[in-house]
Amino acid sequence: MAFGQDASEAFAKVAPYRDGAVYVSYYSGSSEWERHPNGDEVVMVLGGTTTIVLLTNTKEERFFLAGHELIVIPMGVWHRFEGSDRLKVMTITPQPTEHSLETPAT
C-alpha cells in the first residue's frame, strides 16, 4: 500500500479533534472497507489521485478525487480508497473506526 512501507508508516496523526483526530497520509494502492458510526468523515486530497467508493444500499458509488478536492463521508457509510496514485490526503476522522476486508453487508 504505502510504497513498500507498512500501513502504520503511511499515516500520521496531526492533532486531536473532538472524539477523533486529523490525519495525513501518503501512499498508493487501495484500502480495506471502513466506517465511522459516530460521525461524518472529511477527506481532502492534497496531491495525487484516488477514487472513494461508498457502499450504500448494497450499491457501490465511486467518486474520483484529485488535488484540492474533498468529500464528506456520511456517518455509518462503509467506504474505501481505490486505485490511489501517490495520494497525499488529510482526513478528519471520528472514532471509533470499524474495518472489514470483505465487502460488508449494508
TrEMBL record:
InterPro entries the UniProt entry points to: RmlC-like_jellyroll, RmlC_Cupin_sf
Gene3D superfamilies per UniProt: Jelly Rolls
Protein name: Cupin domain-containing protein
